[in-house]
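Hey, does this match?
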Amino acid sequence: MLVIYNPTAGRRRVGRLWAVLDVLVAHGVRLEVVETQRAGHASALAREAAQGGTGLVVAAGGDGTIGEVAAGLQDGLATRLGIIPLGTANVLAHELGLPADAAGLAAVLVSGHTMPLWPGLVRSAAGSRLFVQMLGIGFDAHVVHRVSRPVKRALGRGAYVVQTLRELPRYRFPPMRLLIDGEPVSAGSAIVAKGTLYGGPYLLAPQAAPDAPGFSVVLFEQAGIAAALIAGAALPLNRLGQVPGASHRRASEIAVPGGAALPAQADGDPAGCTPLRVTDAPHPIAVQVGRARSAAARAAA
């Protein structure tokens, strides 16, 4: 077992990491821990491990770290993905129903239960990037681009609230034009979802299926300060996907062509600007879960 640890994402939660590792070692699990040194390092480490025949690579960090590790595993389909959630929101961990305690996480990592996780792939002038939970385009991405790492480490999810209030009077809320499976659509902002949740344990896209190809695209017709405040208030009530002007579509491919350069964020990390194109990653990945169950079964529960 290789554990790829992002010390930037996990600095506030390093105790959880060592607690999980202590449980694994106490039960005779042989493991190696490697810290990432730079952006993209997790992908390189995962790719090398998969090519060397490692059976399980564990991403210890936030959703962005998980996405990097998943990208490295695209060439090693026999290698499973494990998760020790150490990030700010840990949306995928909530999506998969992973336990929060060290013993529970360790049990998941040594269990034989997996489910397929089918990431998305976004291509822009900044390059290609996998995402495991969602891609945001518009104001939420603008906030992600502007929030500072020190504030994020200090305040956790509260850093996004603070930055949102700072950016509301600055952002111009330009209109957006998208192509959803070739059909032109206009919106104020958009979220391309692989999973049902957003920003933590909050429901956004009930019809999303992280274990299948395709996306749930949530379009927000309204734009501006009032619409952003309404969305912010709806989030903790699990009603973000139901705010006035919100609509949901299933799609296989999403493109945002040229025009005004709109910011994008993938799994809570900056992901360049438009123009961009979103498709499925080439392959699904087997991810360790507490017990074998599909996304549809989890939604029904």
User: Anything to note?
Assistant: Confidence is low (pLDDT under 50) at residues 293-301. Residues 14-26 form the longest helix (13 residues). The chain has two domains: 2-118+283-300, 121-280.
